[in-house]
Amino acid sequence: MIDIIRKTDISLLHFINSKLRCKVLDKIMPIITFFGSASFCAIFVVLTIISKNRDIKNLGVISSLSIIISSGITHFIKRIKNRIRPYINIPDIIVNKIGVDDYSFPSGHTTAAFSIGMSIALKFTGLATVSLVLAALVGFSRIYLGVHYPTDVGAGVVVGSASAFLVKVLI
């Protein structure tokens, strides 16, 4: 079973990283990946927390707590799993090393994007589709850029979403 998952992971990585490659996505994906970066998260949290609108300020609190929890979980798992990034293990991966640390599992950018995206979806249900599609595009960009396997991204979706749900339930 593990071997099937590993082969599917690599096949999907090759498909997204190579077969879907085009000049438009080559320009767009580095921009989209920014929406999962620490810089974007910090800007988002600060701008929402200083808002005079009570609902937006509350979103900032929920998002910041979700990011803190999910980042802690992600860094803990990364240190235990020590999964090497795909561009190191697979020679024909096309790579654009935007925002990478030592290990790939789970995707920190995807985790952060879903921490914010799911927080928005839970707080402002009318924005759920937009926020979750943008978060999913961040995950997709990480595979496209060759810095994550699909399972890294899937784990990031779970950790980020679960932390947002947890914070929403507790607050």
Largest sheet data: none
Over all CA atoms, what is the radius of gyration?
A: 16 Å
Which structural class do the helices and strands define? Answer: mainly alpha
Overall average pLDDT: 94
Give the percentage of residues in beta strands.
Answer: under 5%
Please explain how this structure is put together.
With 171 residues, this protein is mainly α. The protein has one domain: Phosphatidic acid phosphatase type 2/haloperoxidase (Vanadium-containing Chloroperoxidase, domain 1, Up-down Bundle), CATH 1.20.144. It is 74% helix and 0% strand. The chain is built from eight helices and no strands. It has helices spanning 2-19, 23-33, 38-49, 54-81, 86-89, 108-123, 128-144, 150-170. The protein starts with a helix and ends with a helix. The mean pLDDT is 94.
Kindly summarize this structure in a few lines:
With 171 residues, the chain is mainly α. It has eight helices and no strands. Helix 3 packs antiparallel against helix 4, helix 4 crosses helix 8 and helix 6 runs antiparallel to helix 7.
